[in-house]
Every structure is written in structure tokens, then in C-alpha cells.
């Protein structure tokens, strides 16, 4: 087996592992298992093998998986820098390692020192960026890792700007969603799509937090629909940008529907499953938007 196959295998292993970390982190939050190991880190309640409580098992499993994935990513980093030929792969693996270490440090700090909900919400956002870097790294070794297809149209400055603005705005919406989780505000709006039976509810407390997140998600849908229509008019269907725009639209619609599912399942047994689905979809959407950002950078170099 040549080294390029090993690079591809470790890159995909890093991506799958980082995705698992992201989902497990959301599980820790949803089950309120963040204090399952007390104030100890990296041990769990002073033990290497923790007591078999549900909270400690969930929290310690998350730590264990993070450690294993960290080792895989480190091996991947060495392989890419020693044997890799593409500069973008080195940027992606370096970014993945940086944000993985950063999210691990923030996770440890959250255990040892109590953090505000605003700070805890940032932890998910950083994990999401780390996953996006591993996704981009894995795509390097697929057909999507090439630059814009030959049949495609170089991106205008307006489209490139739109890609970056939508991606940044999506990250803000993601942060708001994480803030809803960490403030336990999910019950602030009963019913969907209306909030407590009103188009504009009483904007106080948890209701205000959830309503802002819903409004942000609705605007994100509008922006992505507009972007898709612009791209469809100017590019061929086989173009990577068009395909990414199409999947962005599909995923944002599914994400909003899953948000409604989360609300309607509040208080039922399937609430946790709905929440995990919501996390999976937003991770996929942010990954696709990150890929669009890379295409925008490549297009700028090509025509600039």
C-alpha cells in the first residue's frame, strides 16, 4: 500500500473520529453529564476507571474518545507533513490539530472551573471548526478536493463575499443554538413553527433566547435560498460550487425541520434522539459551507 492510501485512511479516520467527538459532546450536554466526573481531569472522580454511573460513563467515554482521536490526528499530522504533497492538506491538518487541542483545553477548564453558559456554548463551536478542518482534509483525497471543475465559471467577488458572510452567519446561529442548550432554554417556546401559539411571543427569559435562535435560523434559510438561486443561474450543475450550494439548501431545510422535531418532542422519550439529529445536521451544513469557503479561496487565487 502506498503512502497516499495511508494518508487518505488516516484523514478519513480523523474526520469520523472528530464527528463522533462532536456528537458525544452534544450528548454530554443534553444528558447533563458534564459534572459526571466531578472536578477531576483527566481522572474521573479521582479514579482512572470511574464508577459505573450513567453520567460518569457518558462524560468519561467522551474524554476517552477525544484522546484516541487526538492520537490518530497526531499520526495524521506527521504523515501529511512528511509525505503529503499538497499545501492545503497541511493547512487543514494543522488547523484540525490546533482546534482539537483548544477544545480539549476548554473542556478541561469547564470541568475544573465552573464556566458561564456563554463560554460553554463556545466549546461546541470550536469542536465544530475542528470537525470542519478534518472534513476538508478528507475531501483533499477525493474528487471534491480538486479546484473548481473545468466546466465551471470562476466565482465573482460578490459570490465569494456571499459565501464568507453566510458561513460566518451560520456559525453565529450555531452558537445561539449551543447557548439555548447550555442555558436549558429549550422549553422557552412550546409549539412549532409558532412560539407559544404566537408569531412574536413575549420576549423575556428562555423564550427570548429560543426565539432569537429561531429567527436566526429562518434568516439563514433565506440567505441560502438566495445564494442557491444565484449560483444556479450562473453555473453548470456539475460544478462543485453548485453541488455544495444545493446540499447547503437541502441541509438547512432539514436542519430547521429537525429543530421543529426537537421542540415537538420536548418532554418525550425521543427528545434525546431528536437533539442528536439536530446536531448531526448542523455539523454537515457547516462542513459544506466550509468547503464552499475553500472553493472561494481557490477561485480567488485562480482568477487573481
From TrEMBL:
It is a multi-pass membrane protein. The keyword Metal-binding applies. Pathway: Porphyrin-containing compound metabolism. The chain crosses the membrane at residues 64-84, 91-114, 120-141, 162-180, 211-231, 243-264, 270-297. Its main location: membrane. It is found in: Membrane. Its EC number is 1.3.-.-. Keywords: Cell membrane, Disulfide bond, Heme biosynthesis, Iron, Membrane, Metal-binding, Oxidoreductase, Transmembrane, Transmembrane helix. It comes from the Bacteria. This is Heme A synthase. It comes from Paenibacillus konkukensis. The lineage of its organism: Bacteria, Bacillati, Bacillota, Bacilli, Bacillales.
Amino acid at each position: 500500500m502506498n503512502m497516499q492510501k495511508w494518508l487518505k485512511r488516516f484523514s478519513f479516520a480523523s474526520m469520523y473520529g472528530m464527528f463522533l467527538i462532536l456528537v458525544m459532546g452534544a450528548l454530554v450536554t443534553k444528558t447533563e453529564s458534564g459534572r459526571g466526573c466531578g472536578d477531576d481531569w483527566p481522572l474521573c472522580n479521582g479514579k482512572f476507571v470511574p464508577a459505573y454511573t450513567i453520567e460518569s460513563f457518558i462524560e468519561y467515554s467522551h474524554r476517552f474518545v477525544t484522546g484516541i482521536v487526538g492520537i490518530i490526528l497526531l499520526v495524521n499530522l506527521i504523515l501529511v507533513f512528511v509525505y503529503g504533497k499538497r499545501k492545503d492538506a497541511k493547512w487543514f491538518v494543522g488547523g484540525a490539530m490546533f482546534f482539537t487541542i483548544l477544545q480539549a483545553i476548554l473542556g478541561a477548564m469547564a470541568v475544573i472551573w465552573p464556566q458561564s453558559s456563554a463560554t460553554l456554548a463556545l466549546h461546541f463551536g470550536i469542536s465544530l471548526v475542528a470537525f470542519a478542518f478534518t472534513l476538508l482534509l478528507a475531501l483533499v483525497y477525493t474528487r471534491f478536493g480538486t479546484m473548481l471543475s473545468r466546466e465551471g465559471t470562476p466565482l465573482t467577488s460578490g459570490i465569494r463575499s456571499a459565501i464568507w458572510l453566510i458561513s460566518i452567519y451560520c456559525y453565529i446561529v450555531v452558537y445561539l443554538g449551543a447557548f439555548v442548550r447550555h442555558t436549558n432554554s429549550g422549553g422557552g417556546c412550546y409549539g412549532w413553527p409558532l412560539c407559544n401559539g404566537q408569531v412574536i411571543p413575549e420576549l423575556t427569559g428562555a423564550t427570548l433566547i429560543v426565539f432569537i435562535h429561531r429567527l436566526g435560523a429562518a434568516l439563514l434559510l433565506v440567505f441560502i435560498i438566495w445564494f442557491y438561486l444565484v449560483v444556479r443561474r450562473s453555473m453548470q450543475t456539475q460544478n462543485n460550487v453548485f453541488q455544495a450550494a444545493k446540499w447547503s439548501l437541502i441541509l438547512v431545510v432539514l436542519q430547521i425541520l429537525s429543530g421543529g422535531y426537537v421542540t415537538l418532542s420536548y418532554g418525550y422519550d425521543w427528545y434525546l434522539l431528536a437533539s442528536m439529529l439536530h446536531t448531526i445536521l448542523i455539523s454537515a451544513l457547516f462542513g459544506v459551507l466550509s468547503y464552499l469557503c475553500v472553493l472561494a479561496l481557490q477561485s480567488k487565487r485562480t482568477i487573481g
